[in-house]
Amino acid sequence: GVVKESFSEEQLRAVPAGEGKTLGDKLALAIGTIGENMSLPRATRVTVGQDTQLVGYCHPSTVDQDMPRGRYGSILALRTHRPLTEVAKQLCAHVIGMNPKAIGEEGDPKAENPDDETLLVHQEFLSDPSLTVGEVLREEGLQVVDFVRYEAGETQVREE
């Protein structure tokens, strides 16, 4: 299964970050070094079983000290019996771009206007709009078990 744990800013500031410092300490040092105000408003830890893989993506994507950063981020928990392909990253980018509210199932009702679709499986796939995400998942032998989407500036953790 998938376990998602949400952390508040107060909880994040107290997380040990090595060398006897907390994330709050490291944040204060970074603010002093960079000269820009920053915060740690929220985080989600996603834990999965052996049958599930996590894939993440940030947009725009920049890597600093092996840590991807961007204004938007997503993590998908995927089940498959095949090696993951580029489609896994494309699905992460899709979640960022199309902001689904739930995964949904093929039998769930579709929105009248495809632009208003909030269920992931019924949305037109961002990388190939001639297909729905559900069709891509079937073709690739993938199952989206859960996902997390973040946007810089958001203050509320999305409730499931």
Spans of 5+ residues with little confidence (pLDDT < 50)? none
How many extended strands? 9
Largest sheet: 3 strands, antiparallel
Helical segment count: 4
What overall form do the CA principal axes indicate? elongated
Percent of residues in helices comes to 10-25%
Strand content: 25-35%
Class of secondary structure makeup: alpha+beta
Major sheet strand order: 3-6-9
How would you describe what is shown here?
The protein has a 3-stranded antiparallel sheet. A two-stranded antiparallel sheet has the order 1-2. Strands 4-5 form a two-stranded antiparallel sheet. The protein has 4 helices and 9 strands; from the N terminus they run βααβββββαββαβ. By secondary structure, it is of the alpha+beta class.
Layout of secondary structure:
Layout: E1 2-8, H1 9-13, H2 23-34, E2 42-48, E3 53-59, E4 62-64, E5 67-69, E6 72-80, H3 86-98, E7 124-125, E8 128-132, H4 133-140, E9 142-151
Antiparallel strand pairs: 1-2, 3-6, 4-5, 6-9, 7-8
Short description:
The protein is α+β, with helices and mostly antiparallel strands and 160 residues long.
